[in-house]
Amino acid sequence: MMISIPSILLGLGGKCLLNWALVFLQRNNICKSLLGVFSVSLAVVDTILTLFVTSLHMHADGYVFLLGLKLTRYHVCLLVQILGRVCNALQWPVAVAAGCDHFFTVTRGLQTITGRTRLIVCLFVSGLLWYLTVLYVFLLSDFLPVMEDVSHDQIHQCRIFHTTQILQVAMFSLLTLGCAALHAGCSTGFLKTPPLKEQITEQSRAHLRRDAVHQAIHIFVNTWAPFLCFLAVLVLAPVGIPAYLGLNVAWLCFLNSLVIAVIFCTVCPASQITQGLAAAPPDHFCEWRFQFILAGEDRT
Q1: What is the four-CA torsion angle of 14, 16, 21, 24, rounded to 10 degrees?
Q2: Would the pTM of this model clear 0.90, i.e. be above it?
Q3: Is 295 left (phi over 0), alpha (psi -120 to 50) or beta?
Q4: 289 in helix, strand or coil?
């Protein structure tokens, strides 16, 4: 689709403000997870690009020299298209890396790692994700920028591509969440009958599992219901999100909560949750507290 350059700059500016507002809101926990560190790197990249393309577009001569290269208004469209393609390609790698990070946090698989070491690892992984994705876009993908055949001083619109990866990641994660809830709800119907003692034990575990899954989904849905409605509208409506706006800190916050819910529902045993052995990853929006009633007592 064609979008005017002022509209692109306005969208990038709004994205930068939203990114930094959410980073500031989560400043106490932003460096404790991979998604938090990556959110800061995304805010920095978006800000640098926005300032650069704005100055390039507003320059009186219509061009600037940078490192011996003559950059014109053509390069505004080129840079925005590159950003969109990189952000589109980053969706799945970021989701998978966040899932691994939260998995080790929930299961306490990396208890010996200190806070400083964890931060260094997150910085390294974030930089590696950016580097490998940029290499993929330029060397391995079929990315071809689309430029209008006009002179640089007359260009006023850019051809922008839609992002499709957001809906793919969201639908796959929500489908996994739904399957986990369905499995937990149906597990009590497939219990072994003999012997009676083992049956009672398995029944108790199944009920705990179902309760943990239902609470995790309840916490997630109660927090992100408006955003889920927005995603539903995007699926049903014949509109799309420009690729350069697709990857933002608001989406990463939603993805953070979604991945945590999926891990609690799929790979974290209910016994670890009830006994306090499962650590909830940092999440500024969802309060991951589970309550169970066992033998007449309340446990949180």
Answers
A1: 180
A2: no
A3: left
A4: coil
